[in-house]
Design brief:
Elements lengths: L7 H7 L10 H21 L9 E5 L5 E3 H15 L4 E6 L6 E2 L11 E9 L10 E9 L10 H4 L8 E7 L3 E6 L4 E7 L4 E6 L10 E3 L10 H11 L8 E2 L5 H11 L1 E5 L12 H14 L3 E3 L19 E4 L1 H11 L7
Parallel strand pairs: 3-5, 11-12, 11-13
Antiparallel strand pairs: 1-2, 3-4, 5-6, 6-7, 7-8, 8-9, 9-10, 13-15, 14-15
Bound molecules: 6-O-phosphono-alpha-D-fructofuranose (P6P).
Length: about 350
């Protein structure tokens, strides 16, 4: 790793003033997330060698088979963040309800809440495909000195103070924003240090990649079917290609670098869509907008959706502005059932 690259620690210190409410809080928050990510990365990279792959035998509230690594990652992130004395509550794909950090652990007096998908795409682990962690950070809205309550977690995505993901791929990368653009840091596992490898990441305005599970084509809304056929038309000016990894973080990351659109729409099998608003779509939408991209439910910006429940699902269109807008133009041709 050329020593000319800035480390994450140096970057955070240089940009501490950017993070509103700065009292060293961002650095403590980010340091705990990057530490947890190193621990999870270590486990993900040796999955297959030790008995940590496969299903845990339990289901999460979504009714999905919890993978052993899902549970491990959830525990690591929650415990690491708790120990940093800065978070008052958590919500996680792997927790039925939000978690209150108790008063005896100082939780009532902390100001931030963290929502997390500890290991997105974890069903890919057994086949050695990239997976990711997604995190979303808000300032609490309930009074300091009291336990967090649901209002702290049901904030619009526009209120996020920070969001990001870790992608455990051919290299492990942390990509995050605090509202001042998006920066990517690559882990040097030999040193356990993250380096600023991708400063100021930006979605290209348009691209050639569309990412959607076409196996569900017959179940899609007509607008989505029309958009897929638009991408597949013969005319020479549409050199599109389909790339779908089955791991949101990986598809998003590739599309942000190369240009593209990721769509997980409603379908007759998933009438509200599959992805969760609070800890998947909102953080990825914050990143997308900060990187000059766009994120909607096919009609309105994800970040403006008023949440109603912790694990609610929404349809998700995210990526290069021109591609998201093209897909939205097809959705607009048909009546919109809210
Ligand atoms: P399907 C993984 O379970 C996930 O939440 C995303 O990471 C991924 O893009 C999507 O679901 C894959 O879902 O139904 O296409 O297998």
């Amino acid at each position: 790793m050329p020593n000319s690259l800035k480390t994450l620690g140096e970057y955070i210190i240089e940009n501490q003033t950017h993070f509103q409410y700065a009292e060293g809080e961002l650095s403590r928050l980010m340091n705990s997330i990057t530490l947890a990510a190193k621990v999870v990365n270590h486990e993900v990279n040796k999955a297959g060698l030790v008995d940590i792959t496969g299903a845990s035998g339990n289901e999460n509230i979504q009714g999905e088979q919890q993978q052993k690594l899902d549970v491990f990652a959830n525990t690591v992130f929650i415990n690491t963040l708790k120990r940093r004395d800065i978070v008052c509550g958590f919500a996680s794909e792997e927790e039925d309800d939000f978690v209150i950090v108790p008063e005896e652990e100082g939780g009532f007096h902390h100001k931030y809440i963290v929502l997390i998908d500890p290991l997105d795409g974890s069903s890919n682990i057994d086949v050695n495909v990239s997976v990711g962690t997604i995190f979303s950070i808000y300032r609490r809205v309930s009074p300091v000195g009291t336990p967090v309550n649901q209002s702290d977690f049901l904030q619009k995505g526009r209120n996020q103070v920070a969001a990001g993901y870790i992608v455990y791929g051919t290299s492990t990368m942390l990509v995050y924003t605090t509202g001042h653009g998006v920066n990517g840091f690559t882990l040097n596992p030999a040193l356990g240090t993250y380096y600023l490898s991708h400063p100021n990441m930006q979605f290209p305005q348009t691209g050639k990649v569309y990412s959607i599970n076409e196996g569900n084509y017959v179940h899609f809304p007509q607008g989505v079917k029309d958009y897929i056929k638009y991408c597949q038309r013969e005319e020479e000016d549409r050199p599109y290609t389909s790339r779908y990894i089955g791991s949101l973080v990986s598809d998003f990351h590739r599309n942000m670098i190369k240009g593209g659109v990721y769509i997980y729409p409603t379908s007759s099998k998933a009438p509200k869509g599959k992805l969760r608003l609070l800890y998947e779509c909102n953080p990825m939408a914050f990143l997308a907008e900060q990187a000059g991209g766009k994120a909607s439910d096919g009609y309105v910006s994800i970040l403006d959706i008023e949440p109603t429940e912790l694990h609610q699902r929404v349809p998700f269109f995210v990526g290069s502005v021109k591609m998201v807008e093209k897909a939205e133009s097809f959705m607009a041709m048909y009546p919109h059932e809210h």
